[in-house]
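Handoff note, outgoing to incoming analyst
You'll be picking up this chain. Sequence as last confirmed:
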Amino acid sequence: MDEKKMLERIKKSAEPIDVPESLKPEFMEDILKEKEQKRRKIPLYRAGAAAAAALIALVALWQINHIGMQQEDRPQMEGSTEAAGYTEAAGLEEYVKETGAPEKTDAAADGAGVIPHVSSEEELYLALADMNQAMSRDMGYGALTGDMMKEEGAVPMDSAPAEDAESSMESTAANNGDYSQTNLQEVGVDEGDIVKTDGNYIYALYGSTVRIIKAEGENLEKISEISLPERDEEVHEMYLDGNVLNLIATGNEASIDEQEEDVYFIDRKSYTRVYTYDIHEKETPKLSGYTEQEGYYKTSRKNGDMLYVFTEYTPIIKDTQESSTIMPRVSGGVMPLEDIYLPEYADQAGYLVIASVDVKQPEKVVDHKAIVSAADRFYVSTENIYGISSHYENGRDYTQILKFSYRDGKIKPAAAGDIRGYLNDTFSMNEHEGYLRVVATDWNNDEELTNLYVLDENLDVYGKIENLAPGESIRSARFLGDIGYFVTFRDTDPLFSVDLSSPKEPKILGELKVTGFSAYLHFYGENKLLGIGNEVDPETGEYKGIKVSMFDISDPSDVKEIDKYVLKDNYHCPGIYNYKAIMINPEKNIFGFECEENYLVFSYDGEKGFVNEFLYELKDKEEFEVYGNGTRGLYIGQTFYLSGSNGIEAFDMERGFEKTGGLTYE
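Most recent structure output, in case you need it:
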């Protein structure tokens, strides 16, 4: 093979990869639940060889790893440190004035006394290089590195978002608030999803297109659709607030750089953008602006007008500081040192980047922080952000917790701490009256145990209960005020209730053993707790199907399972792993979810128990995706809708969910 053909093959291998839906990180995270905390993140690899064939092989190996890894950083945006107008000569202060990047506050007020700031780029580089080398030795590879690309142009501005206004076309259901909402973990903290409604319109996201559907009972009409300016970007989820629609998207870019003769470096960089659209005129949505931050999208939350976005940024670490790129960029600006933190325990050469955006000023980042530490999961209360990462050391699991306070877009590192064990999911954490309550599964001498910790505002252990449920692991948890409930499982399901009214001395109130286990818990009306999970044969451990349980929690010391409903030989239920895939409103007495090849809706009756109000077969129906968390149920008034990849169908709930209409996308 001649040199020209060889280089063409190398360049082609650096092109962005189309990842199948089922392998995308957000879906892999839903599926890989139990032991992901024990997995070390694999860094990007560095490959250089005199023989081009060896280089191509390493590139192919990297691509396989790239697709398979659940949370790996994906191809990122371009931008060298000088590209967007920031140079040492120009100075950061002038750059801030020109770009509108957030002004900096006093370092001490930014949490420097809690988590140390980086004192210099040299300190940061040496720390990152050391971590990178340590991980490379562990994996048996060097690090794949490269230069960052050039910065893109300025943010286009069509118009400012219109002020929220009630439309004269609003339906009675919209006026009464009788429409479904995204299932949230924390009241008052909004979360993005792939389908939203305001009671008049349905906003359905599939691929990178948002369709705006006017919904009046069985009458469905596509009014318009939104496609991103960059065709190769992927939209992960969206937020809806009045006449403002926010889309969270990621983009990929790759380049190849010859560092020396026959040695090439492949750069694959990802960036995350928040696009804000004014949807006051539904027929003609207008892009109001966007912000951008480096790193692959992890998650986001919205409180009031402020949207908080979390990304994972992988620095470019080379043999020298001068040739490395270690400062992340947010909205075109290089983050200053005073916004970057280096915890003592940091052992991964990656950053957690948090940026806030005011949706009323959608082209400007309000604040940003970066910390040298990866975070796999996030719990966000109305006052604090908690980033969670786990590692396995000396035969035991540990969970590290980073705490950031936030208010009006300002982000401040508040505390760092760690506990023994790994968390099942974010519902294993809950903040109440300044305390963080956490339940974790702890390996000790090859035996699983359950620990409950109450952490104070500094994330120091204030109260605890340890060594519960030997041989069992946490499967679900939910907290309500001073009472907590959590499920452990081996062959049966012990549902524990715990009194947390005295944070210093939490006490187990009761333990209920039933067959199977609940993987998701939701308070359902007064004194009731709904569980969705799996039924299991207690003798053989064989899974029997999906189980729905109702618990009476009127007496937390004597919890009772008062009803159950088993879907035999059903095993795949996206709602178990992604709570936003569950449609639920206890006040309306309705909940629904996709299960195997069906969508089911239930109500609960004190005498009849669970009533299966609706079962719709999704199999062989082109308009819906059976797998990939792609089907959503929602309602407006007395009309129930199923939203899939290619259309929406309408059902009349007052007439036994009779199908009354539908819309197929072109």
